[in-house]
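In the laboratory, one determines a bound structure by crystallizing the protein with its ligand and collecting diffraction data. In a computational setting the workflow is compressed into a single prediction: the sequence and the ligand go in, and a structural description comes out. We illustrate the idea with nicotinamide-adenine-dinucleotide.
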Amino acid sequence: MSELRIAVLGVGVMGADHVARITSQISGARVAVVNDYLAEKAEQVVASVPGARVAGDPLDAIAADDVDAVLLATPGPTHEKQLLACLEHRKPVLCEKPLTTDVDTSLEMVRREAELETPLIQVGFMRRFDPEYQQLKALIDGGELGRPLVMHCVHRNPAVPPGFDSSMVVKDSLVHEVDVTRFLLGEEIASVQIIRPTPNSAAPAGLLDPQIAIFRTQSGRHVDVEVFVTTGVGYEVRTEVVGERGSATIGLDVGLIHKSSPGRWGGQITPGFRERFGLAYDIEVQRWVDAVRSGVNVNGPTAWDGYAAAAVCAAGVRSLETGETVAVELADRMDG
Ligand SMILES: NC(=O)c1ccc[n+]([C@@H]2O[C@H](COP(=O)([O-])OP(=O)(O)OC[C@H]3O[C@@H](n4cnc5c(N)ncnc54)[C@H](O)[C@@H]3O)[C@@H](O)[C@H]2O)c1
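The predicted complex, in structure-token form:
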């Protein structure tokens, strides 16, 4: 295939970044069409992309003959309809998380894609492409830590936008740790409990922040996560895996620390997710472009991964209400 012609739908924070990324850094692809609910936003973005045009309707953009693939960066509630259109027109799609906003529609998406017998949907869990997570995964898979038994994760943001509520801490923030757990440990999460410590007095009224999540995996491994999204400090995402023969930590701004040998750390705190994961987004999009051009279409988190994350988060939201441990219900796999 010659240059991949991509339609970018939704050019807010993520979509505008992806347009700039594809235009200036990604090889083998170009932005052909831009769509946004706010037409003036689309016009503004397209002005910096030679040869691209604005489409007034997202479904027209997906169906267009001058579009080979779609990058979906619209808000979660619009994903279902736009993903169904991508499947209908057999257009490969890189969909920013979430796949959809609830478990039933996520599972339906897995079903619809499976019926087509060709993978088309990749979900934007970009941490899988981050060099530190890649290194940690390689260390685990290479057996150097021995069998991983416990994982400790921290997910801290300085602030959240207005309207961010307690269930969004689970569905928008914790969801990344859900995917990281499934990616690093290579198994499903069987149950989740959300513990609610004394809320931060600086958090908006009613927001339960911080939250502590406890996952138990199907084989019985333990993962705890501190999600604290109103620290007022900076963006801190770190993961420590403790195995039978050592431990390893990432996310301290000093690369991977493998504690079978002495490590040191120090330095600055990253201000935001774009600085921390910029390289991961670059690698994610380049690998997706390469996969679509080679006909494989997906080289990363699948629709199933999006569905599994939704199922864990739904259990998490139930636990947030009751404080009880809630079992995760997963359908049988149908994606081969
Ligand atoms: N992977 C990550 O780390 C990460 C980080 C932030 C956001 N996200 C995800 O990316 C997506 C976009 O988030 P954002 O922060 O860029 O949001 P945003 O609000 O900044 O941008 C969304 C854009 O979509 C437009 N829009 C709304 N409805 C539309 C529709 N029906 N069709 C076309 N355009 C529409 C809006 O006008 C806006 O410009 C969300 O799914 C979010 O969860 C992922």
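The pocket of nicotinamide-adenine-dinucleotide is lined by residues 9-15, 35-38, 41, 58, 73-76, 78, 96-97, 124, 126, 273 (CB under 6 Å). Keep in mind that any predicted model is a hypothesis to be tested, not a measurement.
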